[in-house]
Structures are given as structure tokens and as C-alpha cells.
Amino acid sequence: MTRIPMIAGNWKMNKTTSEAVSLSQDISYGYDSSLDDVELVICPPFIDLKSVSTVLSFDKSRIALGAQDVFWERSGAFTGEISPGMLKEVGCRYCIIGHSERREHFFETNETVNLKVHALLNEGITPIICCGEDLATREAGETLPFVISQIKAALEGLNEKQAADLVIAYEPIWAIGTGRTATPEAADEVCAAIRQTVGDLFSDSAAQSLRVLYGGSMKPENVSLFVPMPNIDGGLIGGAALEARSFIDLAKAFA
Ligand code: PGA
Predict the structure, then answer these.
(1) 215 lines ligand 1 (CB under 6 A)
(2) Residue 227 falls inside a structural domain
(3) pTM for this model (two decimals)
(4) What angle do the packed helices 110-122 and 143-154 form, to 10 degrees?
(5) Buried b / exposed e across 43-56, counting CB within 10 Å, b at 16+?
(6) Does 184 fall in a domain?
């Protein structure tokens, strides 16, 4: 089974609309046919989605658009929230769910992650489900059970086909934005355990087609360590996605 590698840029709370237009144009100009076998996704803040979508469609770009969060209801009195249907209409193919920053600052739980996964799939948007342990959990030797329980909760109620098409991003919290990365072998071990969990819950073929990304200080300078890892299918990139050249270089490493 050959999985198409993915490089997804999580812009977090960065870029005003004019800055987002200029970054997405630079990424689009930097794209060349050597990247045709890698899937590139950019995930700007909600307010920039429409403008970035316009840039990508004007350029007839192969780069996909993603959001950074969603609410699970279809519509109604939920001040400040954004529905899956709104994301769909603006052109989102992907949506990041359960990022550790949302779990920490905005009280996201395994249960709300699962509600969001279902809501997105009902709208035909692929969730990029984030998981990962903090330093205390890693030092206590509890990483695998912790991450596996996050995955089991996030995937509750899905069918085999839905599981097969998912993207899961393993992001150890202590590696995000810190310049520290997990060793490639340690990251691969967790990504393998995630794949095995999907195999146990659904089927081997779902496990083999699911894409698992690593995230946490991945940059052009260290990406070559992760590329050969058999269970890592690409990266969820924060800091290095805010500059077109480094984002394109990361994607090229997986081409
Ligand atoms: P980082 O962020 O690449 O800046 O470490 C990754 C993420 O939070 O998705």
C-alpha cells in the first residue's frame, strides 16, 4: 500500500488577511510538478479562509485548504462558532481537530474531538486528528497507552471506510514550537502504535491506508531524519509553515 505523503501547514493565530493572501500566493508560486505526488494543505485562520481559497482557485492550485477547528452543530445559537457546512462552502477539504493548544487553552476533550470528527465526516471534510503526550506522560513511560486512548476516543463510532481515509497527526506536546523534536525512531514507534490501533479497531487495510503525520518542530533542517520512517507519512507543520520557502522545502523532502 503506498500512501500519498502529506505536508499540512497549521498557521495557528498568524497572518492578517493581506498577509495570508501574500503567503498563499508565494506558496502557490513555489509549487512545481515535483510535488505532484505529495499532498500540500494550508490551514489559515477562519477569517482568511475565503481569501486563501480565492487565491488557490485563481491559480488552479493543487494545494488543498484546511481549517484549524470547527463546531459540531450544523447551525444555530452558538455565538462565535463555525459549522462544517461553512467550511465546506468556502472550499475546505481538511480540518485540524483536537490540537493540543485547543485541548489546553479551549478545553477540548476526547469527547468533543469525537463529535467534531463525526460532524466533519458528515459534511465530506477529512479531519486531521491531533494526539500527543506531554512531557510528564513521556517521562512516566505512559506515552503509548495515553496516545492510544486518545485515538480510540476520537474514532468512536466510525466505520472502516471512514477510518481508512483519516489523517492522524502525532504531536508530542513538548516538541511543539520548542525546537525539540522526538527522535525519528520514537516518533515512528508512536505512529506505528496509532496505525496498529486502527488495525485492531477496524482492519489491516484501514490501518495501511490511514495517513499518520508527525508534528513538532519539523523543519527543512531535520526533515530528512523523518522521511525514511515507515510509519510517518508526512508532517503537520507550525512555525516552518509560515514561510513559503521552508514549507515548500518540507514538502519536497517527502516527494
Ligand atoms: P511547530 O508546530 O511545527 O511550530 O512545532 C506544530 C503544530 O503545532 O502543529
Answers:
(1) yes
(2) yes
(3) 0.97
(4) 40
(5) bbbbebbebbbebb
(6) yes
Site to substitute for ligand 1 among 105, 171, 213, most atoms within 8 A of C-beta = 171
Q: Enumerate the active-site residues.
A: 99, 171
Domains identified in the chain, total number:
1
Instruction: Quickly tell me which residue has 493565530 as its cell.
Output: 13
Range of the domain at 183: 6-253
CATH number of the domain bearing residue 35: 3.20.20.70
- Please tell me the total number of residues recorded for the chain in this structure: 255
Pairing relationship of beta strands 64-67 and 92-97 according to DSSP bridges: parallel
Residues 38-52 pLDDT 10s: 999 999 999 999 999
Rg of the chain in Å (alpha carbons): 17
> Ligand 1 mean position to 76 CA, how many Å?
32
Residue 1 maps to a domain: no
* CA 177 / ligand 1 centre spacing (Å): 5
Is ligand 1 within 6 A of the CB of residue 96?
A: no
Distance (Å) from CA 42 to ligand 1 centroid = 13
Number of Cα atoms under 13 Å in the Cβ half of residue 173: 19
Q: How confident is the model over 203-243, as pLDDT tens digits?
A: 999 999 999 999 999 999 999 999 999 999 999 999 999 99
**220 C-beta closer than 6 A to ligand 1:** no
